[in-house]
Amino acid sequence: MAEQIIVLGTGGTIAGTAASSADHTGYTAAQIGIAALLQPVPGLHEALQGRELVSEQVAQLDSKDMDFATMLRIAQRCVQHLSKPDVKAIVITHGTDTLEETAYFLHRVIPRELQAKPVVLTCAMRPATSSEADGPRNLRDAVLLAGDAKACGVLAVCSGDVHHALAVQKIHTYALNAFSSGDVALGELGALAHVVGDRVNWGSASLADLDKNSHLALMQYESHAMNLVVIAFSQGMAWPRVEIVLNHAQATGSIVLALLKASTSEDPLRGIVIAGTGNGTVSESLQTALDEAQLKGVEIVITSRCAWGGIHDASALSAVKARIALVLKLLAS
């Protein structure tokens, strides 16, 4: 039996449509099914290199509406497919707005041994009906990357740049190369590879070293993260409520106090992630409110609102990824 590459469709701009082919922004996301989306992709047959392509619609939504339940469904399908010996890799079409969050979630919950096979997320900044649609190239690049011998773990590819789930961030509102993993010259991970023509050109970063040194699944409570999440929800548990609060000039603690006031036994506030200024700094007023929240059992995580650098000797995660990390930690507690 030929090796398979599974393509999971979840909607997004890549599956969006607009009334005019010249309209790149006034479109409706998640309108075209994954099977139809794959039909007109130039070079797809060559990128498969003899492998069989199998598509499956897991969700159909604008990624601004992504939620943990949908992420879990995607993760479950990934685990089921990756467990099959004839499956080489998985490609996921996704909206750009929350792609980095889904990528990080999958990185955390898919069992490490299954991540020997790549899971590649891809996307588009222009709808499928655009005269300059970027989705077909991104899809073709994702399939080519998925079949590459060096690819492993959860990756994202957009506009030819290959990013790891740990580092990828959306940095631009409309540019085709809307994602970045930072600047290698500044000590950040940077793009792992670039898809050029029919080749994947890998950089100096080693995926093996990255997994060895940075893979958060090495933490004990993460070793069975997928089982943990599935068991939790089979028992009727709710996702722990974790909110993000931004520090800024003249920031007060009023938002934190309002969150505490709105916390109920049915929907308790379990955690707050602070997107702090600079190296995770927080105003005195906000800090006072956070101290009160901690006394009431709310877990606090400090990140930086700066795009790169993280917090020295602490979290290198962005606020949105730190929120996912805290949700998983609270599920395990």
Structural write-up:
- By secondary structure, the protein is an alpha/beta fold.
- The protein folds into 2 domains: 4-214, L-asparaginase, N-terminal domain (Rossmann fold, 3-Layer(aba) Sandwich); 240-332, Rossmann fold, CATH 3.40.50.40.
- The protein has 10 helices and 13 strands.
- The strands form 3 sheets. An 8-stranded mixed β-sheet has the order 2-1-3-4-5-6-9-10, with helices on both faces. A 3-stranded parallel β-sheet has the order 11-12-13, sandwiched between helices. A two-stranded antiparallel sheet has the order 7-8.
- α3 (68-82) packs across α4, α4 (99-109) runs parallel beside α10 (319-332) and α8 packs parallel to α9 (284-295).
- It is globular.
- The termini are far apart.
- The model is unreliable at 213-223 (pLDDT under 50).
